Amino acid sequence: MVGPFEQALLALMIFVIMLGMGASLTPRDFVLALKRPYGLMIGVVSQYGFMPFIGFLLALLLPVSDPIKIGILIMSCMPGGTTSNIFTYFSKGNLALSVLMTVTSTVFGVLLIPIVLVVYAGALDVDIPRENIIITLVLLLVPVAIGMVLRKFNANVGAVTEFLGSMLAVFFILFLIVSWIPRNFTFLLETGWATYVAAIAIGLIGITVGYLFAKALRLHPRNARTVGLETGIQNGPLAIAIIAFTFSGAEQQAINAVPVLYSLFIVIVSTMVTLYFRRANTAAEQKMPDGLL
Amino acid sequence: MSQGNRPWTAFYGPAVRTDIETAAYRTIGDMVSSVAHLYGSKPAFTACLPNGMNGSLSFAQVDEMSDALAVYLRETAGLSKGDRVALQVPNGLSFPVAAFAVFKAGCVLVNVNPLYTAEEMAKQFADAQPQALIVVDIFADKLAQALRGHPVPNIIVTQVAEFFPAMPRGIVRLVQKHWDRTLAPVTLPHIRLPQAIAAGRDIQSGKGIAVESYRAQIEPDDIACLQYTGGTTGVSKGAMLTHENLLMNMEQSMEMISGVEKGREVALTALPLYHIFAFTVNLLGFYYLGARNVLIPNPRPLTNLKRAFENYPITWMSGVNTLFNGLSNEIWFLDSPPKHLKFASAGGMALQSSVAARWEEVTGKPVLEGYGLTESSPVLTFNPLGKTRPGSIGIPVPSTDLRCLDDAGNEVRQGEAGELAARGPQVMKGYWQKPEETAGTMRDGWLLTGDIGIMDADGYFSIVDRKKDMVLVSGFNVYPNEIEDCLVRHPGIVEAAVIGVPDGASGEAIKAFVVRSDRTLTEAVIRAYCKEHLTGYKVPKSVEFREDLPKSNVGKILRKDLRKPVPALRDAS
Fold it and tell me: Is there a smaller number of Cβ atoms within 10 Å at the N or the C end of chain B?
């Protein structure tokens, strides 16, 4: 579905975006997030506790074929990806926490994804493509680190990088939506409503549950927004890679319907959630009088 | 005055001079140049935007650029010594360059609040009669209206990101133009600030003009600044602050600050420089100490300060109660309070003791409260480090006498309340072209502050009340008269009275009592109407509708009766 050139272009875009995200961070942000691992732990519980269960319920309740059920389960077991970092940034969330959550869930994923799948899918045995895990981590951490160094080296270079990265991120989001639909038009027509519901619900319910869970545990709204987005936004490409590694032929294509559809709708859902979070953030801001301040 | 009348001198640190005989420099221009020679290429000013984009000018650059602009003002714009130059820009790199240039040219600086409405600008311009105006482009849309009737012959336009490197400056302008849409075209004839500086440079080299020749004509008691204030009577007027006033007050304030390392401090300037507190203490004082001034163009919302705190090792900051309170409630500030901070100083409005305590708990460093008036350049008192007293405005700065007077003008006994009167080298020359107002405020060399204060046994002062009805909204004097005048101009309003009510965020907030003829008039409509005519802080925060207003037997509205709590039971008649 996506050619090697497009793949390279996407990787380059993500690299530049993450460079910009990194330029908005300081080492202190990570130290602070690590000092209070509470948020991080909540994130892992949310990611591998709630999400697979949500997936399991969706697979159980929706009238879908077996391959789609497998697709839903795999999708819901995925760690967070860079998309969650981008949306956290725009939601005025805690980007350092988001990055750490992505790293944690990705690293733990090697161990946890097979376990969770065994729990929910019984005999389903999947292969975890380690290269993809490593690529995900590299594509996340290397540009973030470079971005941080740039900012440290020169605040203006950092700020300009961040600006360009965030502009590219907006373009990237629009590009994902706009380019996805024509490429998959026939597929959209052929897919049943229940698959749509599942693909939308995984992200939407995930974000909601993660957010409410973090709120219930009294995390700061900024961190709760982060946990919500991190929980609901999964690493779609990793799911596609896992499916490609594990299955073949018609089965592979059928299972793939879920991550492909998810990848479209998560961008739309997250954009709307981000707009809501931004408004909530502005409303919660301290009102400063016009006068001396 | 004898030592006995200044009991507070016992609390001065060992290095503090009790009296400062004469200022270290004759004029502010001399100070700017001398200090620039001392610190040369070190950064003097850094403007930091909310996204971290920034620009810096070194001491030498500020000196050189203000020289060139001074030459432009004198030679090209044709200004003479004593001509007024209005400066209406937010904190940024243009501010020091422009202000220092005006001083060097021997002209008089008129600071104008950039948020002023066209109406308010017009009033100030009508009084000050400036010959030149230096204004930031984002507020230049008000110019045509403000200058109708009293045109200013020279307009110099600057921008928020002035003197930033090209890339961030370009991005800032792009965002302003296409995203914020704050860039209105300037319709009046004008020149851009960098071009004015370039023109000044050309004349400097071409005609061999030395700025020192202007400075030689300036006397220490020449007016440097017309600083507008309502004073204690409410009529807006320009306090005439001389070079000596400002230079002395700069030294007096800095004398009280111990532990300063010259050339190594990093000061955060979040308060607007057009306000006398930041003007004297941050712009002049910290420049004088060779500090790097981190200027914040707009501190609202407070997250706008985050990058400045992250990117610069702030060692010192000035603020008002509102700022300290706000920062102590920001999650990012609580997470990583500035670790290099030595202390903070508060002025402009009363510092609430709970706010001071919370700040110290968060940062581990004290806030030192000072007190002063526009008319005294402004600092009169300050709490010495390590000897602060909560609720007290501290002790008078060197060379300053402060006493409490009764209504007859006699000094009250120590410990009793009376109107504070101050004498010292920082007290203004008088009000610009308002001899009667001046006579009402200055008696035998003493400045009557209009504040009721008490001196304790050690010579520490505290403020108990304000003499007049003026309301202090986050450090700005608001005069009920002006707001009432505006309100009753509304066709649907018969009568209006304005008082100050306690407010957690701004110290005091404006409350309006309105008798309306139009029954459909709502609070929101009145506030929107006020917003059109008044700066934000003057707009009533709440409006109460009344059938009538309490009046004296000569028909004067009694604001003091409105301040009383509403009686629980109302007379049925």
Answer: C
